[in-house]
Fold this protein.
Amino acid sequence: MPALSLRLTLVTATFLTACAAGPHVPSTRDEAFVPDHWEIVAVLPFTGDAAVRRPAGELFAHKMQKQPYFRIITPGFAELVLKRKGQSFDATEITAEQAQKLGQLVEAQAVLIGNITLVRDGIVAYARVEIKLIEVSQGHVVAKVDQSSFPNSFEGYELAKGSANRAATEMMAMLEALGKKAR
């Protein structure tokens, strides 16, 4: 019985810690930045948790394709092009400098990089999606979105999907604002 009590205490502490932090960190955008001749934005393959990074990245790209200003390259297509050029991906987070080089290889003017973290602690799961929009010619981080899910007992993929959807909605609004600025 004491082991069960300790386990419940740890799960409760994990839940309360995450709730105190909140499910959402405000997004940031360089308000002064105006895209110069952007036509193509590539969504690079997401990094992070192997079980959810690929579907979360594709879901994110699918949502991004609904904005009217830029052509979106999906993570699967970007990965195919990059593999043909000798580049490969692993689970480690992509830096702005790496994203700049990869963006040049796929001939995009901007890239979206994403990292997804899925924490499972017994019956509790928590997902966090971080997305950065990087201008390729200078390697400048133009915008950042950070979305998290509240801890619960749902399947990890559902948490990642919810966080990716919220991140996509925020980033799409930012892309549309940049598209309007550039026109």
Notes: The CA atoms of residues 102 and 170 lie 24 Å apart. Confidence is low (pLDDT under 50) at residues 3-23. The two ends are 66 Å apart (CA to CA). The helical segments are 2-21, 53-64, 75-84, 96-105, 156-182.
